C-alpha cells in the first residue's frame, strides 16, 4: 500500500491515505466478478433454433419406439422437438415421456415441452395456478429446454386475463429464466378475446400456429402472422407450419417448401411442423420436410466447465489475469 499527498485550496497540505491497486489485479478482479454473467449469457438460448417438429401422441410416432423416434428425428435434420407433456392439470402420456426424452437428448436433439392450457374448468372456476404447477413439474422433472403454451379457445372465456396473469406469475416465480413461448392463433386480430398481453409480457418468443388450411398460400399467411405478432410485442418468432391433412385438404410439397423459404426470407430463427404423426403417415410429406435445410446446424453446446476454461484462457491471453 502506498500513500499519496494531496494539496487542498488555500495552501494547506493534508495527507489522504488510499491504496494504489495494480491495474492488472483490478482487471482480474473485474473479470472474475463478471464471469458468472458471461457464462449465463453464453449458455442462454431463449427460443428454439433451427428446424423442429411438434409431437402430440408418442405412441403414434415412429411406431411408439423411442430409439426409432430419436434416430428418425436426427435423420430428418430436426435440431429440436416439442413434446406434449401437459394437458390442463395433469402430466400427459407420463408413461412414455422419460424414455423418449432421454433417447432424443442422447441423439443431440434439444427437447422442449408443450401443453394445452384451459385456465379454468367448465364452471369457470380458475385452475390456472394448478396448471402452472404442472408446467413447472414437467419442465423441472424432465429437464426441458423450454416450454410452449398452447392457449386457444378455452382462454377466450370471461376471466381469462386473470387466469393468464396467475399462470404466468406462478411460472416466473419458480422458473424466472426458462424460455417460454405462446403457441396460439396466427392472427391476433381474429381473436381479440385471448389475453395476449398477459401472456406475451412474460414470454421470450412467439410460436404461432400458421395453418393455411383450405388454402395454398403459406408464405402470405406467414408474413401477415409475423406482422401482427410483432405489433403486439417484438419477440423472436418460430412459426408452426401445417403438416397435416383435414376435411379433404392437404398441404402440397410446394406449400411446405414455400413456408420454410418464407421463414428464411424473414430471417426467423427457426420453424416447426404440426405434427410428427401427421407428417409421418404420408411418405412424400415426411421426405419433403426432411429435405428442407435450415442452414448450418448449431454445434453441440459447451459444458459449463468448457465455457469457464475458454473465458479464463481468453483472460490470460490478454494479460487480464
Secondary structure: elements and pairs:
Elements: E1 4-7, E2 13-16, H1 23-43, E3 50-55, H2 66-75, E4 80-87, E5 90-91, H3 94-106, E6 110-117, H4 128-141, E7 147-151, H5 160-174, E8 180-182, H6 196-200, E9 205-206, E10 209-210, H7 218-232, E11 240-242, H8 253-265, E12 270-274, H9 276-280, H10 283-291, H11 304-317
Parallel strand pairs: 3-4, 3-12, 4-6, 6-7, 7-8, 8-9, 10-11, 11-12
Antiparallel strand pairs: 1-2, 4-5
Helix pairs in contact: 1-11, 2-3, 4-5, 7-8
Radius of gyration from CA coordinates? 25 Å
Number of DSSP strands? Answer: 12
The CATH H-level superfamily of the largest domain is Glycosidases
List low-pLDDT spans: 1-8, 39-43
Q: What is the CATH topology classification name of the largest domain? A: TIM Barrel
State the end-to-end CA separation. 20 Å
Structure description:
The chain is an alpha/beta fold. It folds into two domains: 1-43, no CATH class; 47-291, Glycosidases (TIM Barrel), CATH 3.20.20. Helices cover 42% and strands 16% of the residues. It is built from eleven helices and twelve strands. The protein has helices at 23-43, 66-75, 94-106, 128-141, 160-174, 196-200, 218-232, 253-265, 276-280, 283-291, 304-317; strands spanning 4-7, 13-16, 50-55, 80-87, 90-91, 110-117, 147-151, 180-182, 205-206, 209-210, 240-242, 270-274. The strands form two sheets. Strands 3, 4, 5, 6, 7, 8, 9, 10, 11 and 12 form a ten-stranded mixed β-sheet that branches. Helix 2 links the parallel strand 3 and strand 4 (80-87). The longest helix has 21 residues, at 23-43. The model is unreliable at 1-8 and 39-43 (pLDDT under 50).
